[in-house]
Amino acid sequence: MRNRVLACLVLAVAGMARADVSSSIAALRGTGPGGKGNAQAASAWRELVGHGVAALVPALGAMDDEDPVSANWFRPAFDAIVEKAGTEAIPIVEIERFLEDRKGGRMARACALELVRRKDAAKADAFLAKAMDDPSPEIRRLAIAAGLAKLPAEGPGRAEGLQALMKAACDRDQVDLIAKDLAKAGIKTDLASHFGYIMDWTVVGPFPVTAAKGFGVKFPPEDKADPAAPVTGPNGPVKWKRVTTTDPAGLVNLNKELADEKSVVAYAFTRVESAAEQRVVLRAGSITAIKVFLNGKEVYGKDEYHHGMHPDQHQAIVVLKPGVNEILLKVCQNQKVQSWEKNWQYQVRLTDFTGARVAWKQAGVE
Questions:
Q1: pLDDT at 16
Q2: Whether CATH 3.40.309.10 fits 195-362
Q3: In angstroms, what CA-CA distances link 5 with 1, 2, 8, 205?
C-alpha cells in the first residue's frame, strides 16, 4: 500500500513538473517584436532554467526557426541549463533521439548535435557521416566540412568524393572551394544551376517616378502581368523585353537591358513549374528597393536604396503550387547620381531552408 502511495506521489510530482515546464515555455512563446511579453518571459526564463535537465528536450522542441524572438529566449535558457547541470547530467539518449528526428527544428537539432559532441565526439562524427543532406543548415555545413577533411589528398577517389559533396553543398564558401578543386580535375560546375538561380525573364520599363517614391507607386503589372501586351506608363506604352542572363550568380543588369536612368521603376516577370506543392525560400538580391509577387500576391517588400547588395539578402518563405507559378518583381531606382549609386540589378533563386536548390523548371516567360 505504501509503495503504491509513493508511486502515485512520484507520478503526481512529475506531472506537475511537466505542467510547470509547459507554462514557462508558453510564456516564452508569447514574446514578440517591440518587447511584447518580455516582463513575463524574464520570469518564465528563470523558471525554465530552474527545472534543470528535465527542461532540455522541451526547450529544444520549443525553438521555432521562424520565430527568432522566442528562439532568442530558448537558446540561452538551453545553454544555461547545460552549463549549470554539467555534461554528465545530460540525458543523452533523449538528445540523440531528438537529433535523429529530421522533423525537429533546424536550429534546435544543431544545438542537440553540440551536446552529443560534448558527451561523445565519436557519436557526433558518426552522425555527421550520414548528414550531408540534413535539413539543418548548420548540421549540413559541418557534414560537408567533415567530408572534405576525409577526402584523399589526390587520386581518382578525390574527384569522385568532391562531386558527391558538391551535390549536397549549399554554403557559398564551401561550394566555391569544391568547384575550384573540381576545376583542377577538369570538371566544370554550373554554379547558376547548382544554386537554383532563375535565368530567364521578361522585363519592362523604365517608368518614371518622383525621386525615390517608386516603391509606393503602382503600375499595371502589379494588377496583371501580361508580357504579350505593352504596359501603359506615364509616357505611353512600353513593350516587354525577353532577357536570359548568363551570369553565374543569376544577375540581371537593368541598366543594360532597359536604360541607365534614375527615379524609375521596372518589372521583371517569369514562370516556374513545380511538380508538387512545396514550401520554399525565395531568395533575392537587389541593391535598390524591391517588391516580390507570387501568383499575383505580394510576398515581400523592402524600400531601401544602395545599402549594399549580396545574394539572399531578401528572403520570403512561400508556397509553390503544383504546376505553373508566376513570379513578378518590382525593382526601383532612386534619384541619386553618384557613381556607386548607378547599379540597378537583381537576382532570384528558389531553395529549401538550407539554401539547396529545390525541384522546379522554367515554364516560359512570355
A1: 33
A2: no
A3: 6, 5, 5, 80
Q: What is the pTM of this model?
A: 0.86
Within 10 Å of residue 299's Cβ, how many Cβ atoms?
15
User: What is each CA distance from 150 to 164, 165, 207, in whole angstroms?
Assistant: 13, 11, 55
- Give residue 333's pLDDT: 95
- Give the per-residue SS3 of 140-162: HHHHHHHHHHHCCCCCHHHHHHH
Query: Quick check: 13 pLDDT over 90?
Result: no
Domain boundaries, the chain: 2-139, 151-189, 195-362
Distance, first Cα to last Cα, the chain: 81
Task: Say if strands 264-274 and 200-208 run parallel, antiparallel, or are unpaired.
Answer: antiparallel
Q: What is the mean pLDDT of residues 170-193?
A: 96
Of the CA atoms within 13 Å of residue 362, those in its CB half-sphere come to 14
Helices 106-119 and 121-128 cross at an angle (nearest 10°) of 140
Residue 309 has pLDDT above 60, yes or no: yes
- Of 71-80, 89-98, 137-146, 214-223, where does mean pLDDT reach its minimum? 71-80
